[in-house]
Amino acid sequence: MTAAEQSSAGPPAQPGAPDQAARPATGPGAPMSAENPWPLRVVSKKIGDWLARLGEVWTEGQITEISHRGRTVYLTLRDPAAEVSMRVVDFTGAVAACDPPLRDGAQVVVRAQAQWWDKNGSLSLHVREIRQVGLGELLARLERLKKLLAAEGLFAADRKKTLPFLPYRIGLITGRASDAMRDVLKNAKARLPSADFEVREVAVQGPRAVTEVCAALAELDRDPEIEVIVIARGGGSMEDLLPFSDETLCRAVAEAVTPVVSAIGHEPDTPILDYVADWRASTPTEAGKKVVPDLAEEQRGLNISRTRLRQALNAMLTRESDALAAMRARPVLARPETMLEARSEAVQNLVHRIRSRTSSRLERSFDDLVHLRARLRALSPQSTLDRGYAIVTDAASGAVLRDAADAGEAVEVRLAAGALRAAVVQTITDTREDDE
């Protein structure tokens, strides 16, 4: 049995002592519990063993601090998109071999081994190889990111918000005491002295830029009084402007509810933020002119509009006044009864014509009636009776007799005036047949 096993097994059993098997097991090999805690050295060693299994890793980050202690170089490597940093130690001379020399803010790719220091419980990366990200690689990465964001629709014109004409308050995110801040404020207040700005001074380059700009953007976006946000920075090298092509910042701008104006660098500088923002200003100066209207120009425009409106109203009033005067000068309005007289005369003529035509129609109708009555009387049986003829009917049947042979014993004779009842005493045959 080894010494470690003997120490873990505990002292040998003494005569008369309780059975050791009945006691809970203790020592590093026993299950961990409140009664059997691991010593801190054991925990530290196990952490080191777990990290040793990780092996070498490739990682990327931004250098925020470099310090030399003899041949050993200590670096702080930071993730530009998050509040994450780690200590890096170089014992191999990899940093000295870099050309050009490393400086704060450089983007690097590191091959390293994670190391755990038992004594103070600290973690660091031991460098095996370090490479600076070249300009060509940066451009390629930016191009890939640009295509990715464009495919997701973050550059689409239909998602861009319209800038307010007269914002109540303007948010400004810019460098601390920077020329960009002065340019925006100076030009905006020169156009609109009452322009109200809420300024957030942040780092606009280096490892903290993305985090601080995103935090300021989120704070201003939550403020309901802020109607537009300007992100401004002066000119600089491509490496200096890299934070404004960071994916985290671009997505934060795309998700903002408040319209965002990008005013980064000079005219040739086009970070990805310019494509995502709702409006791009070529310079901070242009941003100051864009976010507020020009008070003098607006007053000039109002004066011109007021003058045009006054001229148009005067012309309309003059035109309507002339038309009213011309209308009042017409005879029909100067002497309105003239119109009534003309209408009255026309009505009288119509009445006269109606009466004439009605009288003529009645006279013709009366003459026609007289003629028709004369014809009717001439053709009526009464006329025949008036000429001395009579109508003889059988007294029994009342039938008109046309033949003497049809007469009965009594007949009724109708004269022009009155009638006679007579008895038939003799029937005389018609002599017309004899004459023929």
Provide structural commentary.
With 436 residues, the chain is α/β, with parallel strands linked by helices. Among the domains are: 47-133, Beta Barrel (OB fold (Dihydrolipoamide Acetyltransferase, E2P)), CATH 2.40.50.140; 139-293, Succinyl-CoA synthetase domains (Rossmann fold, 3-Layer(aba) Sandwich); 383-435, no CATH class. It is 41% helix and 21% strand. It has 13 helices and 13 strands. It has helices at 3-9, 40-54, 135-151, 179-191, 209-222, 247-255, 272-276, 284-290, 295-329, 331-334, 337-379, 381-386, 432-435; strands spanning 56-69, 72-79, 84-90, 107-117, 122-132, 169-175, 197-202, 226-233, 260-264, 279-280, 391-394, 410-414, 419-423. The strands form three sheets. It has a five-stranded mixed beta barrel. Strands 7-6-8-9-10 form a five-stranded parallel β-sheet, with helices on both faces. Strand 9 (260-264), helix 7 and strand 10 form a beta-alpha-beta unit. Helix 4 (179-191) runs parallel beside helix 8. It is elongated and about 185 Å long. Residues 1-24 have low confidence and may be disordered.
Which helices and strands occur, and which strands form pairs?
Elements (H helix, E strand, L loop, with lengths): L2 H7 L30 H15 L1 E14 L2 E8 L4 E7 L16 E11 L4 E11 L2 H17 L17 E7 L3 H13 L5 E6 L6 H14 L3 E8 L13 H9 L4 E5 L7 H5 L2 E2 L3 H7 L4 H35 L1 H4 L2 H43 L1 H6 L4 E4 L15 E5 L4 E5 L8 H4 L1
